[in-house]
Amino acid sequence: DEQFESPSKPKFPILLPHRLRVTTEASCRPVKYTTQMIADGVEDEEKWLAAGIAGLQQNAFYMHRALDTNNLRDALKFSAQMLSELRTSKLSPHKYYELYMRAFDELRKLEIFFKEETRRGCSIVELYELVQHAGNILPRLYLLCTVGSVYIRSKEAPAKDVLKDLVEMCRGIQHPVRGLFLRSYLSQISRDKLPDIGSEYEGDADTVVDAVEFVLQNFTEMNKLWVRMQHQGPAREKQRREKERNELRDLVGKNLHVLSQVEGIDLDMYRDTVLPRVLEQIVNCKDEIAQFYLMDCIIQVFPDEYHLQTLEVLLGACPQLQPSVDIKTVLSRLMERLSNYAASSSEVLPEFLQVEAFSRLNNAIGKVIEAQPDMPIFGAVTLYSSLLTFTLHVHPDRLDYADQVLGSCFKKLQSVGKVEDNKATKQIVALLSAPLEKYNDIVTALKLSNYPCVMEYLDTETSKIMATVIIQSIMKNSTRISSADKVEALFELMKGLMKDSEGTAGM
């Protein structure tokens, strides 16, 4: 049984993490991370989950009875025993989540009880001390976070001190799955208590800088735990570990979402503190899954304006990622967001010129393709297609930019010869269709000197499809061709319809 000693004889001072018990989970009970389904596999896991839920519910029942009679000591005793069910190593992350959510619901009830206890005269400082006497570290830290939430709300101590205490104490759990869920709980109970601008917890001693530091520290520790999962267990279980890691990724990414909601993070703070710290962690972890997911998170959760103003820093991280990271998707999504931002209002277009967005993106894509000579042609063409779409949205009057993109694509195609990959040919069609859709005028497309050069690399059937797209554009827009040179250039583009695969006349 968990034992709690009298609050009149505190063992530990408050808010001095370096003087608190330095017990770690490893020193309590060495555990090598594994979620193998021994014997009967999934059936065994269901039994373990059922046993965990049964134990949790039984102790929750006694906890409720103690809450109803305002028996603090028994409430803490049975809540600690209830939380001990989360110490299991036998469940996959998916099943562990089911157990965690049941414990989470019970902890919300316990938090309400703690609030009522403080209203009845119980010292929140003594309560914060008392829960640190739980015998096992995992229940102790869940209880500490729960009381810590009430402690911050009471404003008897600066929010930053309590938050710093909690985020550092959680280092005691180094088991990846248990540690991730514990820190996710810490993030959940603290997100409405951050000392943000306009928050009731902001003050002389608490600023938005403290809020940002707390979230960044929790994010860093969670990412380390998440990455560690990849390196524990036999090589033959790599695929299963990757599946489990993907199930847990949102626990880590949620920290970036919390940061994006902090009102006090302006562009300067994002550029000088938030983005460099996040990118440092992403690059240094050297993990393919984490790098791809977290780069995508940055692109999705932070404002378009911030991406534009920090484009150089964000793009500078791309060549530092692992070669196996799907960088084409990351950059394509970034360019898609920036394209939509440019299309949202003409007033933002000067910002793109100011930061030289096209030049930076073009250089970044060139470096990525150069650094990955084995990148499939589909990936390279996808990047150029996204860049061309971006260029047509942001700089519709700069045909030289569009032609430069087509020229870079042509150069890449020269190194591989005729394109036979079906996905790549479809992407080339999308690339060549973009100017037609933007300008609604084949005459403008004919001004792009590299347009026919790229089209040369389509196979016969796809050339016919592209020629048909051009004809449909001419008919739809009633385009008039004003000179013999342009007619000749147009026929050159449509030669796929005029010749069959043997090169004889088809029309």
Architecture overview:
- By secondary structure, this protein is mostly helical.
- The chain has helices at 25-28, 42-68, 72-83, 93-119, 124-130, 137-154, 159-169, 176-190, 208-228, 238-260, 267-285, 288-301, 304-309, 311-317, 327-344, 349-354, 357-371, 377-394, 399-414, 422-439, 442-446, 451-455, 460-477, 484-493, 495-498.
- The relative contact order is 0.05.
- Residues 1-39 and 501-507 have low confidence and may be disordered.
Strand content: under 5%
Helical content, roughly? Answer: 55-70%
- Mean pLDDT equals 87
- Helical stretch count? 25
What is the makeup of the main sheet? none
Sequence stretches where pLDDT stays below 50 over 5 or more residues:
1-39, 501-507
Q: What characteristic shape results from the CA principal axes?
A: elongated
Question: What is the H/E string?
Answer: HHHHHHHHHHHHHHHHHHHHHHHHH
Instruction: Please give the radius of gyration in angstroms.
Output: 30 Å
Distance N to C terminus: 90 Å
Number of strands: 0
Structural class: mainly alpha
